[in-house]
Each structure stands twice: as C-alpha cells, then as structure tokens.
Write a structure and sequence with these properties.
Layout (H helix, E strand, L loop, with lengths): L3 H6 L4 H5 L4 H17 L10 E2 L14 H11 L11 H12 L16 H14 L10 E4 L2 H12 L8 E7 L3 H9 L3 E6 L10 H11 L4 E8 L11 H14 L2 E5 L16 H8 L9 E6 L13 E6 L3 H12 L6 H11 L9 H28 L3 E2 L8 E2 L2 E2 L3 H10 L3 H13 L1 E2 L1 E2 L12 E4 L4 H22 L1
Parallel strand pairs: 1-12, 3-4, 3-5, 5-6, 6-7
Antiparallel strand pairs: 2-8, 7-8, 9-11, 10-14, 13-14
Helix pairs in contact: 3-16, 4-5, 6-13, 7-8, 7-12, 10-11, 14-17, 15-16
Length: 482
C-alpha cells in the first residue's frame, strides 16, 4: 500500500518547490557531523569546528550588554527588583516596562502592532536619530524581527494572481532570506549588480538597466536596498542615497530600506544616514511622494540579540487606504515576543550620562566598537596578503565578503563534482580546516566570480584562529590548484 504522505506531497505549494535549497544548510549539517565525529574521538587536524557563517555576534563570543540582560532578568523574575545588587535605573526601567505589560507580566499577549508605549519609544528614537524629522507611532509596526517585517510588507503589494507577477529590484549580492521570502510569495526577483570594483557601489545606470530588462516579463513595483550592506560591507553616502531616491521617484518604485546594520559603521570616513532623513531633507516633491518602508532590528549592531526576536518597520508616505490595509494585515499576525519588544525599548532609550548604569554600558559599547574596528583591519590585512583572494574595504555591517580568484583547474573540478566552485571551496575548507563559512552563491554574484562570506563579529582571539586556519588552508589549496 502506498504511504499516504506520497499523495500529500503532491499538494505542497509549487512556490515551495521554486525555492532553491540552501547550500549553507548543507554545510551546517556537515559541520554538525564533523563536531559529532570529534566528540566520538575521531582524529582530525583541528580540535573543533569554528562556524563564522552566521551573522550572530553572541555565537561568535561577543558578550551581551549588562544593562539589557539585567532589565530582562528583572522583567522575567520581578522578585529581583527587591535586590540591592541591581542599579536603581535597572529597577526603574524594569518596573516601567512591567507596568505597560498586561497583568504586569511579560507572559501576556500584547497588541499585534506592539506595546503602545514601546512603539512611542521607537518613534522618539527614529526622530532623534534623524535630527528631528517627525516620526509618527501610527506608522510603526513592531514584529519578531526585520525578516518578519520584510515578509509582511511584501505581502502588501506582491501580486500572485493574473498574468503579470510583481517584481522587486534586489541587489546582487544581497540578503538571501529576502529572496526566499519573495519567491515564497510568488514575486519575481529583478537582480541589479553592485559594483564590486568600486567598493560595491550602487549605480543608477545599473538600476535602470535591470528595471527596463524586467518590464517585459513582470511588473517591477519596489526597490530593495541594504545599507550598510550585507554581505558586502559597503556604506552609502548621501549622494548615493539621493540618486536612489530620485530614481525611485522617476520610476514610481516603493523603497524598501533594510537598515539593520545602522549602528555598525567602522570606517572613520563613513557615516550612516537613514533613507528617511535624506528623503525629507531633499524636500518636495520627493519628501511628500516617495513611498518608503525602513527596517531595523535588535539582532544586529551593539545589541546582537538575535534570539530575543524584535524589530520594526516604519512606513513613510503610504497612501491612507494602503495604511489601512497594512493595519489589517499586521493585525492578522501574533504579537512580537515581549522580551524582544522590551529590548527595542532599551535600544530606543539606553542609559544616559549620569545614570548609574551608564559607565558600564558606555564602556561595553566602546569595547565592542574597538573590537570591530580591530577585526576589520586584521581581516583586510590577512586577506590582502593571500594570493588568489581579494576583499573590498569593509566599511560597515559585520561581514567580510572576499572574492576567490580560482584557477580554471579548480573551477573544472567543482563543475565535475556538480557544485558551485565557492561551495566546493567552502566544503574543502570545512573538512580540512574545521572552518565553516558561507559560499558566495547564496547571496548572488556576477557570473564567473566566486566569493565566501565570514562573520567578523567575534572576539579577537577567535578571529585570529579563523584567519590562521583560512590562511593555512588557502595556501595549501593554492599549491594544489594554482
């Protein structure tokens, strides 16, 4: 008798079948297998697996901020509020936050758009960040993270019925889970290529080329951009942002600005400027017509709280009727985890000079900045010294994305094995050096180029071990194939 799951399998959505399986998942499974072998006593030329494929600072050994964890601990276990070991501002923050939770408990449901007091805090943070540009709480929706926010916004305008599907201009390389979400919803990825030779610049001519090429087979409605860039580490300057906004206005495109790495700028000559700030400083007709959704998260920057799940989207210039639809759409989702919302409130209103917790908080932030700047310099130094590998300047975010200049013999061997050359390289690196990185094909890349991505949000000691293993492997690889 045929198992029933065979008939159920035929009912799975065709969109799921259209999503390419992740090469990173396969590498992660292999990394877990190697770790199990090491624990069973299997001899290898390394004692453990180091995984730098994730954008996860705490996984990389960086410590959570003391104030954040003290407030969260007090909210989870209010009896701690009676402890004299906690600073008074921690107690006050926790008491205030518990006061806006239903029943005084973080275990209670909240409004699907977020706890109103925390939504106002986020609104105040955005206005302060942007030099006084108005931010309205009713335009902000708190979610379980920027990825969830992106998915919900895509649901607003991606058309899945009719002969013409909705297209979204997406940078190459970019954040792979956005592409997966777009495919899952039935949208069409319209790739535009960042200019690697010029520090991964966004070029308007390339945006225009991609848009015109797409109009024959889909209806491009939006432009997705990451600033600072994942995985590229580029940071857009004001002129670049203005050019993108002008292009979006000319072509009537909805702007999706993924700004989750806004606190992670390492280049002293670069600054993060939000798309919203630039949009409003450009004045009419741009400031009152270009539609924008901007995204932020507690998972990145100095907080690095990936597991607590909290983020938000702010809409700008959305038609009131569409905003009504957005309210309806977001009301169908469950509320974001309360601990994530609490952490967003701390991000919006951290300790200030004069507060008891400020000295430790500011020192932890300074130490994290210093670590990231040191890590960037060290990565650029080591990768720049390796033959057959090059890396554009890492100005922001938490990744290095070096290009592998593989010889034809290596490319041919990968093709013979039926895998992408950078997947093939990453597999050898994992097996021979115990180092797990992300293959560039996961993020997209120009045909004929190959990259790897590694997270540099880690301790300096761990990074040194990563670079030692990468260098030794690459030089050995070079002797075999170059």
């Amino acid at each position: 008798m045929q198992p029933i799951w065979m008939s159920l399998l035929r009912e799975v959505s065709p969109r799921l079948w259209s999503i390419r399986s992740s090469e990173q998942v396969a590498l992660a499974k292999r990394a877990a297998q190697i770790t199990a072998e090491l624990q069973q006593g299997v001899k290898k030329p390394y004692k453990d697996v180091i995984d730098v494929s994730w954008g996860d600072a705490h996984r990389g050994g960086l410590k959570p901020l003391t104030f954040v964890r003290q407030v969260i601990a007090s909210c989870l276990y209010p009896s701690l509020l009676n402890s004299e070991s906690l600073p008074i501002d921690v107690q006050q923050k926790a008491q205030n936050l518990l006061g806006v939770c239903e029943g005084g408990s973080v275990g209670a449901y909240t409004s699907t758009c977020g706890i109103p007091k925390i939504v106002r805090s986020v609104s105040e943070f955005i206005s302060r960040r942007d030099g006084g540009v108005e931010s309205l709480p009713e335009n902000i929706f708190i979610t379980s993270g920027s990825q969830r926010s992106l998915m919900m916004v895509l649901k607003l305008f991606v058309q899945t019925e009719g002969s013409v599907r909705t297209g979204v201009l997406v940078p190459v390389p970019s954040y792979p889970y956005f592409n997966m979400a777009l495919s899952m919803l039935g949208g069409v990825m319209v790739p535009y290529y960042l200019d690697e030779e010029h520090g991964w610049d966004v070029k308007v001519d390339e945006l225009r080329r991609a848009l015109h090429a797409a109009r024959g087979h889909c209806n491009p409605m939006a432009l997705y951009i990451t600033n600072p860039g994942n995985p590229t580490g580029h940071v857009q300057n004001r002129k670049s942002i203005e050019d993108v906004i002008q292009f979006a206005a000319e072509e009537n495109l909805f702007l999706l600005a993924d700004e989750v790495y806004q606190d992670s700028v390492h280049d002293p000559e670069s600054d993060f400027i939000s798309y919203k700030k630039v949009l409003f400083e450009m004045g009419p007709p741009y400031s009152n017509s270009v539609e924008l959704a901007s995204f932020n998260s507690i998972s990145k920057g100095y907080f690095g709280e990936c597991g607590l799940r909290g983020g938000y989207v702010e809409f700008v210039n959305l038609d009131p009727t569409v905003m009504g639809c957005a309210n309806t759409l977001f009301s169908t989702d469950t509320c974001a985890p309360v601990l994530g919302q609490i952490t967003l409130d701390i991000l919006a209103h951290p300790p200030q000079p004069g507060d008891p917790s400020y000295p430790i908080f500011s020192e932890e932030i300074r130490a994290m900045k210093d670590t990231m700047i040191s890590n960037v310099h060290r990565v650029q130094e080591v990768i720049g010294s390796l033959p057959g590998m090059s890396c554009q300047p890492i100005k922001g975010a938490i990744f290095a994305f070096p290009q592998l200049h593989l010889p034809p013999s290596a490319v041919q061997q990968a093709e013979k094995a039926g895998v992408n050359p950078d997947v093939w390289y990453s597999g050898y690196l994992l097996d021979e050096a115990g180092l797990c990185v992300g293959p560039g094909c996961e993020h997209g890349q120009r045909e004929g180029t190959h990259h790897i991505r590694l997270c540099i949000a880690t301790t300096q000691e761990n990074l040194e071990e990563v670079l030692t293993r990468l260098s030794a492997f690459h030089l050995s690889f070079k002797s075999r194939f170059f």
